From TrEMBL:
Belongs to the RlpA family. Coiled coil: none annotated. This is Endolytic peptidoglycan transglycosylase RlpA. Its EC number is 4.2.2.-. It is found in: Cell membrane. InterPro entries: RlpA, RlpA-like_DPBB, RlpA-like_sf, RplA. It is a lipid-anchor. Residues 37-126 form the RlpA-like protein double-psi beta-barrel domain. Its main location: membrane. The keyword Ribosomal protein does not apply. Keywords: Cell membrane, Cell wall biogenesis/degradation, Lipoprotein, Lyase, Membrane, Palmitate, Signal. Residues 1-25 form the signal peptide.
Amino acid sequence: MFVKKITGVLLLVLLQSCTSVPSSASTVGTLAVVSSQQGKASYYGGRFHGRKTASGEIFNKNILTAAHRTLPFGTQVRVTNLNNNKSVVVRINDRGPYAKGRIIDLSEQAARQLKMIRAGVVKVKVERLR
């Protein structure tokens, strides 16, 4: 009985030592953070709802998407509102923002989850996930 327990513990330790995360990345659930930036975020919604995005898909203000100037379409990023520490993971499906000083435009739903609707523009951290 004792030998079985020791064997089980050793097997568990061995399996854990086989998994690795690149030294330059930290993990978020099952995704790794590969880069990050800080700046201002805004959101867009009603006026663009139903229109085509730069990726060719139809914009839906009620799903978790965002516009970024350079990240590839389909990239997932975690956006954290630095005023209240609320975070949301969104998928890049559009280009922008075009307003000076902003690094990301969020869908209205993402802005709701970050509690930034009233403020309109907030300081955020954007982390690219892999």
